[in-house]
Amino acid sequence: MTLNDIALHRRSIRKYNGTSVSREELETLVRFAQEAPSWKNQQTSRYHIVTSPALLAQARTCLGGSNPQKTEGVGALIVTSFKHNIVGHTHGEPDNEGGNGWGWYDLGLQNAYLLLKAAEMDLDTLVIGIRSAEQLRSLLAIPEDETIGAVIAVGHRVEDAQRPPRKELSEIVQFI
Ligand SMILES: Cc1cc2nc3c(=O)[nH]c(=O)nc-3n(C[C@H](O)[C@H](O)[C@H](O)COP(=O)(O)O)c2cc1C
Questions:
Q1: What is the per-residue pLDDT for 94?
Q2: What are phi and psi of 110, to 5 degrees?
Q3: Of 3, 11, 95, 100, which has the fewest CB atoms closer than 10 Å, so is most exposed?
Q4: Separation of CA 127 and ligand 1 centre (Å)
Q5: Structure pTM?
Q6: Residue nearest atom 25 in ligand 1 by C-alpha distance
Q7: Is residue 167 a part of any domain in this protein?
Q8: Helix, strand, coil percentages for the chain (3-state, nearest 5)
């Protein structure tokens, strides 16, 4: 598959078939995500990976809206986070208006790599922003110095999903 094929094959999947995802596959995803650039190569992104059926059931209750139903049958939930106030900071003070936002930026970049690698491996994913960070922190003992970002569900799709339309280039680009 070309990079273009991979990007088009990746879709947010909201119905999973209950098959497992191996530890080796999950390590491959994270290793690939580590190839993303990060601010001063600080690599502050972290991954808390749940695969046991009992803990998956508990972790799914920390998701909001209809996300618990959408994640039935996933093989893993990856709670992504980053060590806060490190990137974009010098001696604890923000370098510019981005502040802790640069940590979000680095985590998003890494997570994009992870999603694309998953698509290449024929694993399906759903990025989940509607979740309770505090419930996940308590359940998984995530340290207080980490800002919790998206949860990424990983598994195998029941059926293909439609590609939601993208905006026209003229709406998002200014050539100067
Ligand atoms: C930061 C972020 C948070 C998201 N949160 C949710 C969510 O809580 N539940 C959900 O079903 N989809 C969620 N999505 C998935 C988006 O709805 C989806 O990416 C978008 O509709 C485009 O579809 P596609 O991923 O198939 O291209 C989220 C995506 C991102 C990037």
A1: 92
A2: -60, -40
A3: 3
A4: 5
A5: 0.98
A6: 12
A7: no
A8: 35, 20, 40
